[in-house]
């Protein structure tokens, strides 16, 4: 349960940080919504990368635990 919460939090954090940076740049440069959409997409991609990386790490740990039992 804790690992799922961590993965979800990392994904949401990527969206919020990316969206926040894009929103700030759009406000500063007056280019709404170009940078918001760009950085929101980059934040989503970063969040997905974190989810995949964590899933891979969990899979490796499970495989290592199975091999120790052999």
Summary of the model, kept short:
With 70 residues, the chain is mostly helical. It has helices at residues 2-29, 34-69.
Would you give an account of this structure?
This protein is mainly α. It is 91% helix and 0% strand. The chain contains 2 helices and no strands. The chain has helices at residues 2-29, 34-69. The longest helix is centred in the C-terminal third of the chain and has 36 residues, at 34-69. It is rod-shaped and about 60 Å long.
- Average residue pLDDT: 92
Assign the structural class, choosing from mainly alpha, mainly beta, alpha/beta, alpha+beta, or little secondary structure. mainly alpha
Shape: rod-shaped
Low-confidence stretches: none
- Percentage of residues in strands: under 5%
Number of DSSP-assigned strands = 0
Describe the secondary-structure layout.
Blueprint: H1 2-29, H2 34-69
Give me some keywords for this one.
70 residues, 2 helices, mainly alpha, 0% strand
């Amino acid at each position: 349960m804790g690992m799922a919460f961590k993965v979800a939090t990392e994904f949401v954090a990527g969206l919020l940080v990316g969206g926040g940076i894009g929103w700030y740049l759009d406000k500063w440069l007056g280019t709404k919504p170009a940078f918001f959409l760009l950085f929101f997409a980059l934040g989503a991609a970063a969040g997905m990368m974190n989810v995949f990386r964590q899933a891979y790490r969990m899979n490796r740990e499970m495989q290592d635990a199975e091999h120790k039992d052999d």
